[in-house]
């Protein structure tokens, strides 16, 4: 049987981990988010069974999320919250344009 989820004080002491998704052509992919979630869960010593029991989300859906599958936004945010993570969206800050190419950002 897996370990218990840590309490909020423990998570606050770890500091806030932020997954940043930049809204542009090279954005973070759902597969990357799934990999980060799986790694965080394992680093915390939490089994899928424990996460399933704590979240009310089926093991099948949790596995799908960790493999980068399409899940509800509420599922994603629930799991992120239980693991002490949150998703932050930021618009990119454009860099200066290259004088050689008017259509491309550098």
Provide structural commentary:
The protein is α+β, with helices and mostly antiparallel strands and 106 residues long. The chain has one domain: lambda repressor-like DNA-binding domains (434 Repressor (Amino-terminal Domain), Orthogonal Bundle), CATH 1.10.260.40. 44% of the residues lie in helices and 11% in strands. It is built from 5 helices and 2 strands. It has helices spanning 8-14, 30-43, 48-55, 59-66, 73-82, and strands at residues 17-22, 85-90. A two-stranded parallel sheet has the order 1-2. The longest helix is centred in the middle third of the chain and has 14 residues, at 30-43. The chain is globular. It starts with 7 loop residues before the first helix and ends in a 16-residue tail after the last strand. Mean pLDDT is 75; it is low at 10-25.
Mass-distribution shape: globular
User: Given the structure, what is the number of helices?
Assistant: 5
Largest sheet: 2 strands, parallel
Strands side by side in the biggest sheet: 1-2
Give the end-to-end Cα distance, rounded to a whole number of Å. 50 Å
What's the CATH class label? Mainly Alpha
Mean pLDDT: 75
Cα radius of gyration in angstroms:
17 Å
What is the H/E string?
HEHHHHE
| The CATH homology group name | lambda repressor-like DNA-binding domains
Low-confidence parts: 10-25
Q: Care to count the β-strands?
A: 2
CATH topology: 434 Repressor (Amino-terminal Domain)
Question: Please, how many domains?
Answer: 1
Helical percentage: 40-55%
CATH architecture label name: Orthogonal Bundle
């Amino acid at each position: 049987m897996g370990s218990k989820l840590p309490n909020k004080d423990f998570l606050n002491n770890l500091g806030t981990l932020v997954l940043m998704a930049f809204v542009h052509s090279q954005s973070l992919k759902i597969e990357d988010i799934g990999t980060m979630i799986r790694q965080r869960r394992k680093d915390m010593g939490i089994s899928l069974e424990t996460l399933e029991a704590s979240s009310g989300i089926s093991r099948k859906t949790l596995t799908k999320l960790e493999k980068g599958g399409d899940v509800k936004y509420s599922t994603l945010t629930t799991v992120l919250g239980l693991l002490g993570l949150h998703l932050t969206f930021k618009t990119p800050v454009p860099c200066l344009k290259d004088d050689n190419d008017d259509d491309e950002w550098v």
